[in-house]
Write a structure and sequence with these properties.
The chain is an all-alpha fold and 151 residues long. The protein has one domain. Helix content is 79%, strand content 0%. The protein is globular, with a radius of gyration of 16 Å.
Length: 151
């Protein structure tokens, strides 16, 4: 099982936008240590996606990880609100993917600004999806153990 310190160190490399979501996930993990693997797996997949050689490819791979996790959350949605939230993430992932395709039409400095803006949005989505993933895992774990369901 990964340690909380390892998770936080990995999250620190993701940047200031994603870090608060990881800290929130750590709070959930402190209550339910079994969920550490879920958080670490998602953070590792996202970190690996960001290791692509080119910036556009890095962004595309990151969006792919987010899209995959949003689809997973959609498939596990227990309420219409959860399903609608996952659908919104999928729509946002599509929009970000489209924006990535437009980076190349600008000059060098504008490309860098566009890429930074897109990366920030991807990090925000990552934070939202990580938080939802941890909440979902915690809810399903309580359900499997026969504990009270969350509202």
């Amino acid at each position: 099982m990964p340690s909380i310190g390892t998770l936080l160190k990995t999250a620190a490399r993701l940047g200031p936008v994603a870090y608060p979501a990881v800290k929130k996930a750590v709070e959930v993990i402190k209550k339910n240590p079994e969920l550490a693997r879920t958080a670490q797996d998602l953070v590792d997949r996202f970190t690996k996606a960001r290791a692509a050689r080119s910036r556009p490819e890095n962004l595309r791979r990151s969006v792919g990880v987010l899209r995959s996790q949003a689809q997973h959350l959609l498939s596990r949605a227990d309420t219409p609100q959860e399903a609608a939230r996952a659908q919104r993430w999928l729509l946002q992932a599509d929009r970000v993917e489209s924006a990535i395709g437009l980076i190349g039409i600008h000059s060098g400095k504008q490309q860098q600004r566009d890429a930074a803006r897109i990366q920030k949005r991807i990090d925000e989505l990552f934070g939202e999806i990580l938080t939802a993933t941890m909440e979902d895992a915690e809810e399903h774990q309580r359900g499997e153990l026969g504990g009270p369901a969350s509202a």
